[in-house]
Amino acid sequence: MRQPQCYPVDVLFYIRNNSIIFELDLICLEVYILSTFKEIFVEHKTYKSQIFKMAKNDLVKTYSGSALGWAWAVIRPVVTIFIYWFAMSVGFKKNGLVNGYPYFLWLITGLVPWFYMSDMLTQGTDCMRKYRYLITKMRYPVSTIPTFVSMSKMVVSLILMVIVVIIYAILGFFPTIYYLQILIFIFFTFAFFTSWALFAAPISAISQDFSNLIRSFVFAVLWCSGIFWDSTEVGGTIGLILKANPVTYLVTGFRASFMGQYWFWEHPRQFGAFIVELLLMYLLGLWSYRKLRKEIPDVL
């Protein structure tokens, strides 16, 4: 019969202490997260009317001072789409059908959500620097700045998506029941990149180098996220990495919605991976905000 293994008293005490410390760390982490979440929730609830007003002001300020005004919200993306379409069609000879749809439609369905994502990766990262006067000269809830900036950019994205729907209809591709899924992916996109801004903006406010680093990677994200080519055709390890990219997942989801390919729950692994990434991004946002919020006014 095997004898039970015995430990010296000091070893038992050490193991128990480690267990206690570990449990205390988990409790402190839980309190840390919940208290930060509660604080942000209360600020958003208390200042909800101001958030909408600031989102409107941000939108107006973006296109003020020019003769065409709001028209630039459409002109700039249209010019960008035409340039990319011309380069891919003429230079790379991509003129065929993709999943039964013209390449042009397939391309704009991915580019329109990307415009919002790109703005949040750049302007969302710098939003606290842009609105430094709210932080240094007024008692304004800092956590709401990424939210109203994200809302402002999303308004433009929604306008562009309506234009995409109209273009689809003009070319003979009318709305299907899968269009209902577009609203879900709009929410996913807004939640992820607002969380990103909550994470990145405090760091950027402390260090301009972080903002420059993000800007240098935006172009790489554009070309590595399956916006110009079909990421579902890539297999192996690279395919798995691409599928783990939240930008790839969101762009593919918008295309599946516009082209009536599948519902998001039909791919549970990819959906589950994105939800994990979304929660992780939000937790990182809570950590960044809680860690740096007291230093931001002094640095700015």
Architecture overview:
With 300 residues, the protein is an all-alpha fold. It has one domain (47-299). It has 13 helices and 2 strands, in the order αααββαααααααααα. It has helices at residues 9-46, 48-63, 72-91, 103-124, 127-130, 132-136, 145-170, 180-206, 208-223, 236-244, 246-258, 268-292, 296-299; strands at residues 97-98, 101-102. Strands 1-2 form a two-stranded antiparallel sheet. A hairpin with a 2-residue loop joins β1 (97-98) and β2 (101-102). The radius of gyration is 23 Å and the shape is globular. The N and C termini lie far apart (71 Å). The relative contact order is 0.11. Residues 1-22 have low confidence and may be disordered.
Descriptive tags:
300 residues, mainly alpha, two-stranded antiparallel ribbon, 13 helices, 2 strands, 75% helix, globular, disordered N terminus
The major β-sheet equals: 2 strands, antiparallel
Going by helix content, strand content and strand pairing, the class is mainly alpha
How large is the count of helical segments? 13
- Radius of gyration over C-alpha positions, nearest whole angstrom: 23 Å
The run of helices and strands is: HHHEEHHHHHHHHHH
Quaternary structure state of the chains depicted: single chain
Total strand segments: 2
Q: How many domains in all?
A: 1
Portion of residues in beta strands equals under 5%
How would you state the average pLDDT, rounded? 84
Helix content: over 70%
Given the C-alpha coordinates, what overall shape results?
A: globular
Main sheet strand line-up: 1-2
- The N- to C-terminal Cα distance equals 71 Å
Question: Which stretches of 5+ consecutive residues score pLDDT under 50?
Answer: 1-22
